[in-house]
UniProtKB/TrEMBL annotation:
This is Uncharacterized protein. Residues 1-25 form the signal peptide. It comes from Hevea brasiliensis. Gene3D superfamilies: SGNH hydrolase. Belongs to the 'GDSL' lipolytic enzyme family. GO terms for molecular function: hydrolase activity, acting on ester bonds. Keywords: Glycoprotein, Signal. The keyword Transit peptide does not apply. Coiled coil: none annotated. The keyword Signal applies.
Length: 225
């Protein structure tokens, strides 16, 4: 086993949420003996920062949270998020939101803010200041991270928000599931560039474990933006 101290998923560019049933035997990461998880990111991984910053956010009302907390508790999902499953698999507590005054930080912190962006914009959030992807990665490594996971963008072709926004009468734009084919090219474009950027970081830090994970999970649930 690798000696792995920190796990830092960087969930930067995804704008949608997942519903995946909890797997009862999912402690695959326990052997890694992670001490802490630190997570930057956005809505796909926010466990409560945005709801504190902006109590009237869409995620602050049902059906968000209904299947896990039975109330809207800050996750932009009706249940758990990927990061929750990662924490559970590692045998760590679910990550508290950084802005939660009650948060315990012994096992890491979640800096993710729903709606935040990889690059600065007018509405960029406090926790995602205007540092570049590269600078942020370097800073995380400098702070002692030994393993970083960069999730690739997911297939976004069936996101209800996008299907509404980019609706077209052009039948050939849709695949057999009535999803917009072209949108997946955007995900693929993003992931190709992410992979290249990771290779660059790897050159500088050959002792680090850096990887990109892509997923083909297509079970989208609630969405806001
Ligand atoms: C923090 O804990 C207090 C007391 O239990 C509670 O009233 C408050 O809602 C909690 N804050 C958050 C953001 O969870
Ligand atoms: C219809 O969609 C396909 C696939 O996206 C595209 O190649 C084609 O140019 C579109 N046709 C029109 C008339 O917009
Ligand atoms: C997606 O990208 C591939 C290769 O880059 C290209 O061949 C294909 O036409 C693109 N599809 C759409 C619908 O734009």
């Amino acid at each position: 086993m690798f000696s792995c101290k920190f796990l830092l998923p960087l969930l930067l560019c995804s704008l949608f949420f997942l519903l995946v049933p909890p797997a009862s035997n999912s402690h695959l990461l326990k052997d890694c003996k992670f001490e802490a998880i630190y997570q930057p990111g956005d809505s796909i991984s926010d466990t409560g920062n945005n709801i504190i910053e902006n109590p009237s956010t869409t995620c602050a009302r049902l059906p968000y949270g209904q299947n896990f907390y039975r109330k809207a508790a800050g996750r932009c999902s009706n249940g758990l998020l990927m990061i929750d499953y990662i924490a559970l698999s590692a045998g760590l507590p679910l990550l508290d939101a950084y802005l939660n005054p009650n948060s315990t930080t012994g096992h890491g912190v979640n800096f993710a803010v729903a709606g935040s962006t990889a690059l600065p914009t007018d509405c960029s959030k406090k926790l995602e200041k205007s540092s570049s992807w590269w600078e942020r990665s370097e800073r995380i490594i400098g702070n002692g991270a030994t393993r970083i996971v960069f999730p690739g963008n997911l297939p976004i072709v069936c996101l209800p928000a996008f299907l509404t926004e980019f609706h077209t009468n052009n039948a050939t734009a849709y695949d057999e599931f009535h999803c917009l084919k072209e949108l997946n090219n955007l995900s693929m474009y993003h992931n190709e560039h992410l992979q290249k950027a990771i290779e660059e970081v790897k050159k500088e830090h050959s002792n680090m474990i850096l990887c990109m994970v892509t997923t083909t999970i297509l079970t989208y649930d609630y969405y806001v933006w």
